[in-house]
Structure formats: C-alpha cells, structure tokens
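Input.
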Amino acid sequence: MKRIKTAVLILCLMSSGFNICADELLDLRSVLDSQKGNQVINVPKGNYVLDLQNGKNAYVFSNLSGVTIEGNGSTIICNRQNQAFQFTSCQNVNFRNFIIDYDPPCTSQGTIVELSNDKKTLTVELHKGYPLEGITLSSKMLMYGKDRELIKNFQDVSSTTYEVLQREPVAKIKFTLDVNLSPDRIPLEIGDFVSFDVKAEGNTQAHTFIITECSHMNFENVTVYDSNCFSFLEYSGNANRYYRCVVTRRLGDPRFEVDRLRAGSADCFHSKFATVGPTVEECKFEYTGDDCIAINGRFYPVYNANPQEKSLCYLTSTSSMSDNYVRAGDELVCVNNDGSIRGKAIVKSVAQIMPSVAERQATFAKLTTVTGADTYVYGVKAYLDTWIDGVDVGDVVYSNGRIGRGFKVLRDTVGGNRSRGILLKSSEGIVDGCVVRNTAMSGIALAPEFYWMEAGCPSNVIIRNNTIENCMYHADMGSSQFAALVCVSQAPNGQFAPAGSLNDISIYNNTITGCPYPAVGLTSIDGVYFADNTIVKGDFDRNHGSNFGVQNNRDLYRVNVVNFSTTIDVNSVQSAWIDDRYQVVVRDGYLRLTSNELCDLALNVYDFSGRCVLSGISSDSIYIGALPKGVYILHVTGKGVNHSIKLIL
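Output.
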C-alpha cells in the first residue's frame, strides 16, 4: 500500500471519534485503484490523503452498478481546495462511512481587532493556522465572537479588495465594507469573527462530490467538514438517497487554536435536473456559506414562437446540447411573463440554433431581472406535439420531468447559514419532520427563482411536522421570500404571480417560533391546505418584503391565493405515501409511482366491484384519464410491498 508524505499534515489530528497522528497518510487513490472491478471496494479504517496536487483531479467512479464502497469510518484529507469525488453514470452504488476534510482548509477566518469610527473599515487578525493566500471577500460571513453565530440584523455585504498589513507572526488584513449605513446600524464590535472563502492557486474544480446521471445511489453516513463550493451536487439524478449524511463545521480540530466557523463555501446539498427527486433523510447540514438543501431545474427564455410549425426557440448559456435540459419526450411547461402557466406540451425534438442580437435584446427587454443575461448567447429550437396558445417572447419554459419531482426531505436538521435552510422548486414531494434553526433567511422556501432561471413552479407538495426556529434575522430585505416558511412566486416581470403559478400545497402540523411576522408567506397559489400550525412570534421585528407591500403585523400573509382551506387537504387524492419509500402521484390524467428502490412494483387499479380496470408497473406512467369519475382502489405489490390506496377521480 503506497504511502504519501505530506508536509502540511505533520501533527496529530484528533477529533470527533477519529484519530490522525502521523507525518504520513495512506494514499487513497492506490487503495481504490487496487480494487477496481470488485463489487465491494473495502477501504480499511484509517487516515488517507486524496492527492489533488500537481494537476491531479477528483477521483472518478464511472459506470458502476451494484457496487458498495465501504469506508469503515475512514478519514480522507484532500490536500488542495479542489473537487474530491466524481460519480458518473452509476446505478445502485453505495458509498458509506467516510469522513472528508481538507488541508489546507477551503475557508479562512479571523477576529476583528480594529474598527474605524464609521465601522466600515475592519482590521482582521487571522486565526493561527488558517490560510492567508487565496482569500476572497465575495461571500464572507460575519459572526459574533461570543457564540460564533451569524451577526443579526445585518446582511452579508460584498467587498472587492483587501490590504495585507502583515504576514508574521500573525497575519492581518484590512478591508472596507461596501455599505451605506450609519455606525449605529452596523452591529459589529471588536472581537467579532469574520470567515472568508479561500481559492487555490491555478485551475480548480468546484464541489466536494459531483454525482452526474446516476440512479438509485445511496450515500450513507458520509461527513463533510469542508468544501470549496457545494458539498454534494447531483446532476440529472434518478431517485438517489442521502441518508444520515453530515455537513458541519469541525470542532476540536487540534490543527487550529480557534474552532472553525464554517463548513464550506456554498450549499451543503444541491440537486439539479433530477428525473426522480432525491431522498434526503436524517441528514445534518449546517454552517455553510449558502443554502443547506436546494432542489431545482432550469428555466429557458423564449425568443421566438411559430404556431404554424408548433415550434418555439429559447435561449441557453451553453453551446453544448448535453447541457440543454429539455429533451425529446419531455413535458415542456411554458410560463407567462406574469408568472401564470400558459400550458404544457410534449417535446418531439430539439435542435441547436443561433439567436440574433436583436432577438436576445427583445427577450431581455421583458426579462429585466435575469442574472447573467449577457451569457445567454446560444439557442435551441423545440418542436411540440401540440401548440401552447399565447406563447410569446419573454416567456420562459422548463422540462417538468427534470426538476426533481417526487423528492423527499425527511427528518433533517439544518441551519446556522446565511441563506435559506431548505429551498425547493420542485413538485410532488414532501418536507416532513425537519428542524430548521438559525437561518438568516427563510427556513423553508418553496419558490421558483426566475431571476436565477432556476425552475420550476411547484405543485402537489406537502410541508408537515417541521420545526422552524429563530430564522429571518437578516436586516430588512425587500425580497419576495419574506417569511420563515414561504411558498411564493415572484414572476419574471418582478411582481407576485397570479394564483395558479403554484398549485396544491399542504402545510400542516408545523411549529414556527422565534421568527418575525409574518412567519408564513403565501402567494400565487391555487389550492392551499393550512391547518394545525403553531406560530409564536420572536422578540424582534423586520420589514421583509417591503418592496412588495408585505405587512409585518400578522402571522400569515397571503396574496393572490385561491382555494385556501383549513379543513380540506388539497393533496389527499393527488399524492399518497407508502412507508416513506414509495409515493403514488395522480396528476394530469396519469398515475405514477416513484421510489428509491431499483425495482418494478406491480400496479393494479380496481373499481369498487372488484374488477381490475388497469394494470402496469412502477417504471411506467399509467394513463387513467379515460376512466369514469368515481372511487377506485390502487393495489401496489412486489418486493415486500402489499398495499392498497383509495383513489378518487
């Protein structure tokens, strides 16, 4: 077994149940390489280095099926702020019982030792052992020295440059906050902490884990203490599961006299373009630089429409058709500039096409809030099976099958971050039994973000049995995401969308405490069930949502909401859950069953006379739109499942 000597790891690292004590670490690459082709890759419990220096990139697992990668509690140290692992086109792979860390770390930190009279210019003394080289100020975090939590009533701000005052014996830097506030509105004191991102010199790959086009993956008991961007990022996933994974700041690390403030630069977990959404279960994601959990797809701006040939053209920011997440056979959803749903159609084919400058300009004349509009220089032409009436320049489209539908966010603990706890843009999913604490913005947000072009428009989502505490403590934000629990749609035109942009949202048995009013915000929804929620106002006030006329004198604020009920659950028929593994969804005339198991279950629909009227398997959608209205029984069998559900059509 090859050994790599590491100059930076020359001390004992003892913390959190593991012990690293050597000037030599075992080489992870050689251990993994020696077991290629095995159905079980066994990494003996130990302390390993993943060498990412001298042009070495992430370790790649490709085209694996039915493989288990067992870490046995091993600790992996990445020796450069670079991507650690890549999974590509794998299915039914288990990756479990690993601890991932970085040395040098991906963030730096220090104590404010001097403040100018106006509190805008900070002199920061870096904590011993944290890097000076590569510090960036783009997403720093300001924390109280007394409890290491984020500064309240003060938004994170951008600064561009800093001055190095000294390097030895202790590094000091100086920079000025880009704010237009009086000193009494800047709640900083000498002794407070600042955390900074760190970027390695040269080319780097972002994120700790990237999981691309993988199906039924299982990440279990994986702890990530640091990341140069996202800790877990999945693209085009299919029913992947993340069970008891942890992203948190490491405490008691003997490399540092002062404990870490942060657990990475950006999101803990981020899912994009999943055909069946992920299950994120009993995980702990906290103290990261951005959102803790995010699930979404992508909007594309429409720049041309041709009803005669049933085609529309939309803009993209990449020349690669493989990065175009609308494919033949997908259900395309078209959203009006005002946020209303124009309609849906099946995509027959797509082809690359180049827009003119005039076409791009006309599109963004209507989409004035889109971030990075100048990067949308490529185009795609999509032919549809049926025409969507009214499609116009400045609308947006997305694939309804690539937004993570069927997601499950179950019994997770998140928070301590400067953004949202759980941010979802998907449908036919559930958030159940989660605890969200100390998020500077919304604890749970169900919201398309047209300005980021992150899709879609959620429907048939259940938010239940969650606890949200001490959230929304940022300074007043004009943002449309104005409450601790918020289900909103800010349209492409910048205003709240009309009812029907979101559909059929169930919110019940949640507890929200210690947050400002409004604690719950609802906009643009057709069909809400809101019942048995406990709300106790916090001891501070904010004027979040002031740009939209939101009032902070009530626990629930809603606008453009119809079919609001405290007695009738809008999701009682559309979706049902079987022992947290399987979800039955009835939508738009089709019955679907999603699961995290790589198997086919038998689906049989019976009328009340006991006659089987339809049959199918779980990997297919069953068309039930032709059945007469009435009451039916769906019987699901296979792989230990024998369950019946009442359907009312």
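Helices lie at 28-33, 357-366.
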